[in-house]
C-alpha cells in the first residue's frame, strides 16, 4: 500500500491546485483559461495544502511530540512563510519590472514571474491541507 504521508501530500496538492480553477471561475474568469490549474500563486495555496496535509498525517500517526512532527512543522512553516513573504515580494517586484519595461518600450523581453501568496491564500491552503491529512489518516488506519 502507498504511504499515507505521500497520499496526503499528493491529494493536498491536487485538490488545492484544482480548486484554483474553481476560484478562477467564481471570480468570473474565462472557463477556457486552464492556466489556473498549473500557475503558481492564487487562491488557495497548493504549497500550504501540501505541507499541512503531510504534517497532519505525521502528527496523527506519530504524535505531535515526535521528532518527525517537529521537523515537518518547521518545514511547513518555512514553506508557508516563503510563499507569503519572499515569493510575494519578488512577485510584486516582477509586476513593477514588467510595467517599467513596457512603459519605456524596451526591447528587453519581459521575464516570467510568480506572484506568491496573500496571507488568506496560505491560510485557506493550510485549512484544506489539515482536512485532507485528517481524512487520509482515518481512511488508512
Would you kindly provide a written description of the structure presented here, covering whatever features stand out?
The structure is a single chain. The protein is mostly helical. 70% of the residues lie in helices and 0% in strands. The protein is built from 4 helices and no strands. α1 runs antiparallel to α2 (46-62).
Features:
4 helices; single chain; mainly alpha; 70% helix; 141 residues
Write the layout of secondary structure elements.
Layout: H1 4-26, H2 46-62, H3 67-103, H4 119-140
- Written as H for each helix and E for each strand, in order along the chain, the element string is HHHH
Q: In this structure, how is the largest beta sheet organized?
A: none
State the low-pLDDT regions, or none: none
Helical run tally: 4
**DSSP strand count:** 0
Condensed summary:
The protein has 4 helices and no strands. The protein has helices at 4-26, 46-62, 67-103, 119-140.
Amino acid at each position: 500500500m502507498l504511504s499515507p504521508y505521500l497520499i496526503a501530500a499528493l491529494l493536498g496538492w491536487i485538490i488545492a491546485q484544482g480548486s484554483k480553477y474553481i476560484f478562477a471561475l467564481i471570480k468570473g474568469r474565462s472557463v477556457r483559461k486552464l492556466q489556473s490549474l498549473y500557475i503558481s500563486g492564487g487562491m488557495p495555496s497548493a504549497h500550504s495544502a501540501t505541507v499541512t496535509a503531510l504534517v497532519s498525517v505525521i502528527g496523527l500517526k506519530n504524535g505531535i511530540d515526535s521528532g518527525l512532527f517537529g521537523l515537518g512543522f518547521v518545514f511547513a512553516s518555512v514553506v508557508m512563510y516563503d510563499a507569503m513573504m519572499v515569493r510575494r515580494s519578488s512577485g510584486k517586484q516582477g509586476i513593477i519590472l514588467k510595467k517599467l519595461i513596457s512603459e519605456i518600450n524596451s526591447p528587453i523581453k519581459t521575464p516570467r514571474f510568480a506572484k506568491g501568496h496573500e496571507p488568506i491564500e496560505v491560510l485557506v491552503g493550510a485549512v484544506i491541507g489539515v482536512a485532507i491529512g485528517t481524512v487520509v489518516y482515518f481512511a488508512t488506519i
